[in-house]
Design goal:
The structure holds two protein chains of two kinds. Chain A contains 18 helices and 21 strands. Chain A starts with a helix and ends with a strand. In chain A, the strands form six sheets. In chain A, strands 11, 12, 15, 16, 17, 18 and 19 form a seven-stranded mixed β-sheet that branches. Chain A has a four-stranded mixed β-sheet with strand order 1-10-9-8, with no helix packed on it. In chain A, strands 4-5-7-6 form a four-stranded antiparallel β-sheet, with helices on one face. Chain A is about 30% helix and about 20% strand. Chain A has three domains: about 280 residues, Dipeptide-binding Protein, domain 3, CATH 3.10.105.10; about 130 residues, Dipeptide-binding Protein, Domain 1 (Dipeptide-binding Protein, domain 1, Alpha-Beta Complex), CATH 3.90.76; about 120 residues, D-Maltodextrin-Binding Protein, domain 2, CATH 3.40.190.10. Chain B folds into two domains: about 45 residues, no CATH class; about 210 residues, MetI-like fold (Orthogonal Bundle). Chain B has 13 helices and no strands. By secondary structure, chain B is an all-alpha fold. Classes of the chains: A alpha+beta, B mainly alpha.
Chain lengths: ~600, ~300
């Protein structure tokens, strides 16, 4: 008996000991996440939250407490991330989380200002386009140093961009696809070491020769993928038995000091930052996958900024109007209508019945109540869209009215299409990506189409399966969004409507119109901004009329920002909590 | 004993091979992972270079070979995260193991205590309280309870952190451990009570009572060890279940455990990580079952294994 009890006791004790000991792995010298809020502020705020939860009422106390300034003297900016960044190696980044984190570490040659216009970053000035040899010549800033103390030169730019074009290292070669010799290097699968278009003129002059005029090249290279890293740094990391992602070196305002995967990242100030020593001492990123938990932690003072979970927007508008900031996005959400279907074993055919009947597509466009989607389902976080190009984008035409909700007209168009009240039309398939927003929108669309007599079957798939289905066997209709990578309509209209872009590259409806292709081709290589605007507006009108899309809404990005965060409202563009829009300078943020 | 353990481990090898095969088959059915890896609007040459890097452009038997050898020598790398799979799995497992062990320790301690007290005074208020508590414990969904506890202790009272995880800070584990342990605790309480009650009717207990032992001594000294065998089985299967089934609690409490890592890998089509996770779970089940079998022998000489 004694032996048995002893076995049991040892087991329980061993379990308990392991549990306790193993948790006590690492002690941190400094309280991570910064000092807590003063007790009375925290208490009052928590009470306010509790009260608002209980009653669902607006709470004046909360606003008052917040306005008293929540700054405690800490110089740590605390972010919440939804996922662990997959990589911090610029050439491997393909997701928004990594892009947002890496943009604090690295700089690119050019960047956007708060109005999303191009301005120089590591370059001294925006380069002039040289039409004679299709080149840009960048004069680089002098006195820029990397985190390791070495000075930044044109050699580093060349190294970084050669790496971006190297298929063995990079996942974003396409960014430099316009560079002369890029194709040879991409297809060379590692045998071709250098692209002839990337040329070092002297220590502070870098020349890029393109294969032809490319009005979007400077926009492409604002992506953190094209960031400048010190020459040889990737090899150094490999020699140390690590990857560049684990020990990234850049020129940015912050340098990575600690990364506990799936838990948190910590960055320290780069004292020699070329725009001056940043106010902030540290930036931390805590990984919190659940949206509601991010919000709870933000309201408890644990983060400086926060996104707003689905279903909470109205409550935040009521309770914390003073903390809300908004940015326009380059995002348009749409209902896509397959124009061509994919035949088994390759090839394509016009899709019946929607792809061959423009009146039918126009009827769908008139049947959908966009105000209902934006105001009721999306709680006002979105605006009904009249055009394909979002309002913040170059070439957006404010006079374009697009299609608006008009059920009578929809029924008339349906009759003209040869299907009065939907008679004779088969059941249509509608697919969407599984997420709470899309689910409710899909149901609303189904109801709207039902109202004019269309029988629609709605189905959800997860993201990967959804993309696969669009690629291999496109359904009659689908709900999808597009976020432009940069402020140029080429990234919308060329990418999503040109015949060359069918399927996976972006033209998921497989729309094709030679006249539109002609306009887009011309704008794709024109260096004349005004001419391009005209061409894009012409193309957009034609596309809207033929209705391969039913444009639904354009998102407005709302975030919550603590009152003590200054000089950041404009800098905290969407990418800092979610969408990728470009590189911003985080070195100027202050607390007061 | 050693040969018994060795034989059991060898018997597990086909299990691992089978899991590898099934996973591989499912990967082939679930489509091309490069679509998500390359990001949207990626041209074909980018996807091709990724395929080449991860041997996805080679015949299926060679791909299977890369998975198998990569798993054995530990060099298999995640498609999406720039890291070895082993590192990611062990990192997640460390968190999940802490969670599961904490939960089982609490469940055993409180469950056995409640069972003992209930069996000592059956049909008393203690027994009824424990029965009611167990019914609630088994019925309440863990994630829901975790949310309520977070709301009360973290948001309203501010005593505990609102989810998340930091190594070396036990306070982050309090709510998840408590909620995760609750179901096992309820099960163990009811099971140990019933086994004890049954053991108390046996002849040897009557003999013990006849020689003058008090009720409590007879219960703890004679009935308890004999009632333990089924309880150990439940502890074993529950520990394995807690390791693999902590996904909901991990998600609700934002713990970077194995469940979350694998769930994310599935939605990202990160095949090597999914495979690593499945094999790890299989290993946990094999290992825990083995431990339970060995414990049987220690607890009850009648079922001791023959060499």
């Amino acid at each position: 008996m004694n032996r048995i009890m002893a076995v049991l006791a040892v087991l329980v004790a061993a379990g308990a000991a392991f549990f306790l000991l193993s948790s006590g792995g690492k002690t941190e010298s400094e309280a991570p996440g910064g000092p807590p809020l003063p007790a009375e502020v925290q208490k009052a705020e928590l009470e306010a939250i509790a009260k608002s939860r209980a009653s669902g009422q607006a709470v004046a106390v909360a606003a008052a407490v917040n306005l008293k300034s929540t700054w405690t003297g800490s110089r740590i900016f605390r972010f919440a991330l939804e996922t662990n960044p997959p990589t911090l190696d610029p050439v491997k980044i393909t997701d928004v989380t990594s892009h947002g984190v890496a943009s604090k570490i690295f700089n690119t040659l050019v960047r956007y200002d708060t109005k999303m216009e191009l301005i120089p970053d590591l370059a001294e000035a925006l380069p002039e386009w040289n039409a004679a040899d299709n080149s840009y010549t960048f004069k680089l800033r002098k006195g820029v140093t990397f985190h390791d103390g070495s000075p930044m030169t044109a050699q580093d730019v060349k190294y970084s961009w050669e790496r971006l074009l190297d298929p063995a290292e990079s996942k974003r070669m396409q960014i430099l696809a316009a560079v002369k010799g890029a194709n040879a290097k991409i297809e060379g699968k590692g045998d071709v070491k250098e692209a002839e278009g990337l040329q070092v003129v002297d220590d502070h002059t870098f020349k890029v020769v393109l294969t032809g005029p490319s009005p979007t090249f400077l926009h492409e290279i604002i992506m953190v993928n094209a960031a400048v890293v010190p020459k040889g740094s990737a090899e150094k990391a490999t020699a140390a038995g690590q990857t560049f992602s684990q020990m990234p070196v850049g020129t940015g305002p912050f340098k990575l000091v600690d990364w506990q995967p799936n838990q948190r990242l910590e960055m320290a100030r780069h004292d020699a930052y070329f725009r001056g020593k940043p106010f902030l001492e540290k930036v931390t990123f805590e990984i919190v996958p659940k949206p509601q938990m991010r919000l709870d932690k933000f309201l408890a003072g644990e983060f400086e900024v926060c996104d707003i979970p689905f279903g909470q927007f109205k409550a935040m508008q009521k309770e914390h109007p003073d903390l809300l900031r908004q940015n326009p996005t380059f995002r348009t959400n749409y209902l896509g209508i397959s124009i061509h279907s994919v035949k088994e074993g390759g090839g394509s055919a016009p899709a019946e019945p929607l792809g061959t009947n423009v009146k039918l597509r126009q009827a769908i466009n008139c049947a959908i109540d966009r105000d209902n989607i934006c105001n009721n389902i999306l709680e006002g976080r979105s605006k009904p869209a009249n055009s394909i190009l979002p309002p913040a984008m170059l070439a957006h035409d404010p006079n374009l009215r697009g299609w608006t909700y008009d059920p009578k007209k929809a029924k008339a168009l349906l009759a003209e299409a040869g299907f009065p009240e939907g008679k004779g039309l088969r059941k249509l398939e509608f697919f969407y990506r599984q997420d709470p927003d899309a689910q409710k929108i899909a149901v609303a669309i189904q109801a709207d189409l039902q109202a004019i007599g269309l029988d629609v079957d709605i189905r959800a798939l997860d993201w990967a399966a959804f993309l696969d289905r669009l690629d291999k066997n496109p359904p009659d209709m689908f709900y999808l969004g597009w976020v432009a990578d940069y402020n140029d309509p080429d990234n919308f209209l060329y990418w999503l409507f040109h015949t060359k872009q069918w399927g996976d590259p972006g033209n998921h409806t497989r729309y094709s119109n030679p006249q539109v292709d002609g306009l887009l081709d011309k704008a794709h290589v024109s260096m004349d901004r005004d001419e391009r605007v005209k061409l894009y507006q012409q193309a957009e009108r034609k596309i809207l009329e033929e209705a391969p899309w039913c444009v639904l809404e354009t998102r407005v990005n709302y975030i919550l920002v603590q009152p003590h965060v200054k000089n950041a409202q404009e800098q905290l563009t969407n990418m800092d909590v979610g969408w990728l829009m470009g590189s911003v300078d985080f070195g100027t943020v202050e607390f007061k | 004993m050693a040969s018994f353990v060795l034989r059991r481990l060898l018997q597990a090898l086909p299990v691992f091979a089978g899991i590898l095969l099934i996973c591989f088959l499912l990967f082939k059915l679930s489509g091309d992972p490069t679509r998500l890896l390359a990001g949207e609007r990626a041209p074909e040459y980018v996807r091709e270079s990724i395929r080449h890097k991860f041997h996805l452009d080679e015949p299926w038997y060679r791909q299977l070979g890369f998975f198998a050898s990569g798993m054995v020598n530990g060099e298999l790398r995640s498609y999406r995260h720039d890291r070895p799979v082993v590192e990611m799995i062990l990192e997640g497992a460390a968190v999940t193991l802490r969670l599961a062990l904490g939960a089982i320790v609490i469940a055993v301690a409180f469950g056995l205590l409640a069972g003992l007290l209930s069996a000592y005074r059956p049909h008393s208020w203690i027994d009824y309280l424990s029965a009611a508590g167990s019914s609630v414990g088994v019925s309440v969904p863990a994630f829901w309870l975790a949310m309520l506890l977070t709301l009360l202790f973290s948001v309203h009272l501010g005593w505990l952190p609102i989810g998340g995880y930091r190594p070396g800070h036990l306070e982050y584990l309090v709510i998840p451990v408590a909620t995760l342990g609750l179901i096992s605790m309820a099960l163990i309480a009811r099971l140990s009570r019933n086994c004890l009650m049954e053991a108390m009717t046996q002849d040897y207990v009557r003999t013990a009572r006849a020689k003058g032992l008090g009720g409590f001594q007879a219960l703890v000294g004679h009935a308890f060890p004999n009632a333990l065998v089924p309880v150990v089985t439940v502890i074993g299967t529950n520990l394995a279940g807690l390791m693999t089934g902590a996904v909901l609690t991990e998600t609700t409490c934002s713990l970077p455990g194995l469940g979350r890592i694998i769930f994310q890998a599935i939605s990202e089509r990160d095949h090597p990580v999914i495979l690593g996770g499945c094999l790890f779970f299989a290993f946990v089940f094999v290992f825990v079952n083995l431990c339970v079998d060995i414990l049987y022998g220690l607890l009850d000489p009648r079922i001791r294994h023959h060499e």
